[in-house]
Design brief:
Length: about 190
C-alpha cells in the first residue's frame, strides 16, 4: 500500500463518516415536517419489518403535517399504530385512506435538548474522523518502519492527512451549526 492509497482510503472513509452524520442529523426533529422523520419507523408487513416508505407514499400536506398514503387498504391501521408507538412522540390521525401526522410545536426546553443531542452527534462524528486519521498515520508509520518510504514522505503524509482531517471536522462543525439554527428557528 502506498501513501497515495492511504490518503485516498482515509478520504473515502471520512466522506462516509460525513454521510453517516448527515443521516443521523436527518433523524433529529425540527419544528418543520419532513418525510425523512418517519424513515426509522418499521411496519410489520406480512411477517417482516420494513420501513414505512416501502408500504406507503409520504408527502407534505403543509409545513407542519406529513401525509401517509398506504398502498394497500389494510395497512392504514398498522401504519398508524407503528407511528404512534415509535419514540418520535407523534400522534397520527386517519382521514379515510390518508393518515395525517401533525408535527407538534417544539418547546424552548425541547429545542435546547435537541441542540445538545446534535452537538453530541457532532462530537461522535469528530471522534470517528480522528480515529480514521490515527489509522492512516499508523499505516504510514508501518511503511516507514518497513523502510518502504522515507521520513520526509512520512512527515508529508501526516501533514496531508491532518489537513484532510481539519477540513472534514470543519464540515461537521458547519453541519452542526446549520442544524442548531434550524432547530432554534421558531
Amino acid at each position: 500500500m502506498s501513501i497515495a492509497d492511504i490518503k485516498k482510503n482515509a478520504e473515502q472513509k471520512m466522506l462516509k463518516s460525513i454521510e453517516a452524520f448527515k443521516s443521523e442529523l436527518a433523524k433529529v426533529r425540527t419544528g418543520r415536517a419532513h418525510p425523512g422523520i418517519l424513515d426509522q419507523v418499521q411496519i410489520d408487513y406480512y411477517g417482516s419489518l420494513v420501513p414505512i416508505s416501502q408500504v406507503a407514499n409520504l408527502t407534505l400536506i403543509d409545513a407542519r403535517t406529513i401525509g401517509v398514503q398506504p398502498w394497500e387498504k389494510g395497512m392504514g391501521a398498522k401504519i398508524e399504530k407503528a407511528i404512534r408507538e415509535s419514540d418520535l412522540g407523534l400522534n397520527p390521525a386517519a382521514q379515510g385512506d390518508l393518515i395525517r401526522v401533525p408535527m407538534p410545536a417544539l418547546t424552548e426546553e425541547r429545542r435546547r435538548e435537541l441542540t445538545k443531542l446534535v452537538k453530541g452527534e457532532g462530537e461522535d462524528a469528530k471522534v470517528a474522523i480522528r480515529n480514521l486519521r490515527r489509522d492512516a498515520n499508523d499505516h504510514a508509520k508501518r511503511l516507514l518502519k518497513d523502510k518502504e518510504i522515507t521520513e520526509d514522505d512520512d512527515r508529508r503524509s501526516q501533514d496531508d492527512i491532518q489537513k484532510l482531517t481539519d477540513k472534514t471536522i470543519a464540515e461537521v462543525d458547519k453541519l452542526v451549526q446549520v442544524k442548531e439554527a434550524e432547530i432554534m428557528a421558531v
